Amino acid sequence: MIQGTYYKEWSRMLGRDMEFKVYGHAGTPVLALPARGGRFYDWENNGMPDAIAPLLNEGKVQLFCADSIDAESLLAGDTTPRRRAEMQEKYFNYLTSELAPRILTLNGAKKDTLLWAVGVDTGAYQAVNCRLRRPEVFADAIGLSGLYDVRRFLGNAADDLVLRNAPLAYLAEDGLVDKKLLAKAEENALLLCAGQGSYEGDALVDTQAMADALTDCGLPVHLEVWGSDVSHDWYWWGKELNLFAARVFG
């Protein structure tokens, strides 16, 4: 089993300590986001670092598994939509303005190095949202079984903060993301995948909608729809990550 290094560091954005774990010693820095309500250790507990062990051991990839605050944002159904959106925005700012530069420092990255982001379930949404809103920080993203229609969590995108965190909505607007910069991305800058098996219904619909929205904007996206045996669980996400990571970083 791949062994990781544990960190617990203060976040000014969130006003609390945030935990994360690092796997590998060198290579392309990759921010990894958990499924809804998940924790940073879910990646290790479900064998995701092991799924790309050769790349980690060879120093081709360094994986940084972040924590979530979903209980206070996406899943906080007992609070107002505005409050949920405010917490999601704070989390986005934590990932992109605090954790991202910390990752680059720990990685010993050269100047102007850009990160990858990868996520599963709602973590896929977080990864793609980081990539689209901060292309000067994130070069690429992989979304596995992503839930990208955040109206089910945050409510109507007419609210400005909800819109800012709703990629299916803000891609249809002008001026909210730098589409000219995004359009310059390489072919595999956005990799989206979903299965057609158990509990993949919402993810399959959302993933297709995300790919269509990107295509409509002229943004490079690679979409793969796997078979009817591919369900919404870590077993398949590990297989998908193994395939995509080998293709991109191998």
Provide the descriptors you would attach to this structure in a database record.
globular; alpha/beta; 20% strand; 41% helix
Give the C-alpha Rg.
17 Å
Count of DSSP strands: 8
- Beta percentage is 15-25%
| Percentage of residues in helical conformation | 40-55%
Widest beta sheet: strand line-up: 1-2-4-3-5-6-7-8
Major β-sheet annotation: 8 strands, mixed
Query: What structural category characterises the helix and strand content?
Result: alpha/beta
Intertermini distance: 20 Å
What is the overall number of helices? 11
On the 0-100 scale, what is the average pLDDT? 94
Low-confidence spans = none
The H-and-E topology, N to C, reads as EEEHHHEHEHEHHHHEHEH
Shape: globular
Describe this structure in words.
The protein contains eleven helices and eight strands. The chain has 250 residues and is α/β, with parallel strands linked by helices. The protein has an eight-stranded mixed beta sheet, sandwiched between helices.
Quickly describe the structure.
The protein has 250 residues and is α/β, with parallel strands linked by helices. Helix content is 41%, strand content 20%.
Helix-strand blueprint:
Layout: E1 5-11, E2 16-23, E3 28-33, H1 42-45, H2 48-51, H3 53-57, E4 61-66, H4 81-107, E5 115-120, H5 122-133, E6 138-144, H6 151-154, H7 160-164, H8 167-170, H9 179-183, E7 190-194, H10 201-216, E8 222-225, H11 234-249
Parallel strand pairs: 3-4, 3-5, 5-6, 6-7, 7-8
Antiparallel strand pairs: 1-2, 2-4
